[in-house]
Automatic annotation (TrEMBL), chains A, B:
Keywords: Oxidoreductase. The keyword Zinc does not apply. Pfam families: Flavodoxin_2. Residues 2-168 form the Flavodoxin-like fold domain. PANTHER family: GLUTATHIONE-REGULATED POTASSIUM-EFFLUX SYSTEM ANCILLARY PROTEIN KEFG. It comes from Malaciobacter molluscorum LMG 25693. The keyword Oxidoreductase applies. One of its GO terms (molecular function) is electron transfer activity. This is Flavodoxin-like fold domain-containing protein.
Amino acid sequence: MKKILINLVHPNFDESIVNKKILEGVSEFKNITINNLYLKYPDFKIDIKKEQDLLLENDVIIFQFPMYWFSSPSLLKEWFDLVLEPGFAYGKDYKLKGKDFCIAVSCGAEKKDYVSDNENMMTNLLYPFYGTSLYIQMNYKEPFITYSAEKGLSEETLNKYNQEYLEYIKKLF
Amino acid sequence: MKKILINLVHPNFDESIVNKKILEGVSEFKNITINNLYLKYPDFKIDIKKEQDLLLENDVIIFQFPMYWFSSPSLLKEWFDLVLEPGFAYGKDYKLKGKDFCIAVSCGAEKKDYVSDNENMMTNLLYPFYGTSLYIQMNYKEPFITYSAEKGLSEETLNKYNQEYLEYIKKLF
């Protein structure tokens, strides 16, 4: 059975709605680790070796975050900049090669706001993540995307997102 | 005459090759300010008010950085996350409306590496910046892009990049 790491990146997780809701029940899966990066590194001083070890111990890496300015909150970028070192993630060695790379993103806006001229803007917005996964020879999987957090979501919709996320994760094992 | 702000975002500017070279002569323009963000905020503790004031004082904002993992170094993302507040950049007020939004990015790889199937990947990679500019009603200008920093550039090429950047800036005034 595969091992899954969720790198959770939310500057204010305790007050989050969607990101907290969709994680309900996740810890009941075996072989899953939730790694709350803002909790560990509020000062941005990332323990590179510790994060690399976590990556090596797992087969599937999910980056879960709310969409901030059409990308991830900044700590995830700092994590990429520091943790994906040459000789570890690329160059002499590609130690993450073949592991799955997944994005789970919660958007404030509605789905229709991310579609223009028959083009799915979300694919473009996530392109830097896709490029990163290719560069380090990981397998980029279909992302898990939720919408409309801004307008306030009903309990029913939140429960639906939660169920869909549990299903999404189940398929990754 | 317009006023230009260059938000320079390089974690290691002193050892940079391209980013340092293309700035040669820039300070001889009048009405231009170079704002070295990593020098001011090595600890990521951004002075939001000071940065907002700088934006208000200028007509053209250039974000100059090396490409890190197909995006900007993380401090620029933190800058976006903190400085572009609701009520300042969007929402009740759009205080940056109509100002020019420019990207000046130096890529390690060669130009051909950023083209696939007749598609310019660079446009996709910069899409989060484009989206941000639209959201805050700034004018997104054609970006200034240099390539091939990784393979080592000749003095001649570096001088050419420098001249092209000076020309690029001149047109923005």
